[in-house]
Write a structure and sequence with these properties.
With 236 residues, this protein is mainly beta. 11% of the residues lie in helices and 48% in strands. A hairpin with a 2-residue loop joins strand 15 and strand 16.
Length: 236
């Protein structure tokens, strides 16, 4: 009896994980946020504000599927390190507010938002998104003994969502040691701060370096967090 039960559980698990999963194509238009969320998906974060400088309140939605599936995700180097995991897929959807009061889809991204299991010992890495100065900022946090924070500020330019700024911070919870990188891709500069979060004024050292980049990244050319190798041992 116990053997039959075990086999049945294995079969059910195989059916769940082995079934074909495809991301839905999001609605091109809708009159409300609830009308834009597809079946079997739930809204886990949202923010509103002007994203295309037309003085209307656009919206950015982060959606999560209601079931775990087998998903291959890029780690470290997006060209070579692909890891398959069982997790709930997530999507980013950005909608512009129209003059009629509804919403029009600007972009759908199925890869950039970190999943709930990608935060390490700290759990779900997703932090609330924000809109300021027509920029959409996506934030994540995770780690264990060494903790990390990531912030990415995208702006709508010429039909593309361009990464203008980013931040990458590491800090040790016990010792207070910190290492903070702030990137400005428009000015092509990188500000580095190292020291201690307990004694910032006297212990911290900040320097500015030039970023050797020629092309701005977009959602299409920046697959997901931790896959852009900006320099030796420096991932964003």
């Amino acid at each position: 009896m116990r053997m039959r039960t075990t086999l049945l559980l294995i079969m059910i698990q195989g059916m769940v994980y082995g079934q074909s999963f495809r991301y839905p194509k999001l609605a091109e238009q809708g009159k409300s946020t609830s009308a834009l969320v597809p079946k079997r998906w739930k809204l886990i974060d949202s923010v509103s504000g002007d994203l295309n400088n037309d003085h209307r309140r656009d919206i950015a939605l982060i959606l999560e599927y209601d079931q775990e599936v087998r998903e291959s995700r890029a780690y470290g180097d997006s060209n070579t390190e692909i890891i398959t995991e069982i997790q709930r897929p997530r999507m980013l959807a950005i909608y512009f507010k129209t003059s009629s009061g509804g919403y029009r889809l600007s972009t759908q991204n199925n890869h950039f938002i970190l999943r709930s299991q990608e935060g390490g010992a700290m759990g779900d890495p997703l932090r609330p998104s924000a809109i300021e100065n027509n920029q959409l900022t996506l934030s994540f946090e995770g780690g264990g003994e060494w903790q990390w924070k990531l912030d990415y500020a995208f702006k709508y330019r010429g039909g593309n969502w361009v990464l203008e700024r980013a931040g990458n911070s590491f800090y040790h919870e016990a010792s207070g040691e910190i290492n903070v990188h702030q990137y400005d891709f428009l000015r092509k500069t990188k500000e580095i701060t190292s020291g201690s979060k307990f004694n910032r004024e006297s212990a911290n050292v900040t320097s500015t370096k030039t970023l050797p980049i020629s092309t701005l990244r977009t959602f299409h050319t920046f697959k997901k967090p931790w896959t852009w190798q900006i320099g030796p041992d420096e991932l964003l």
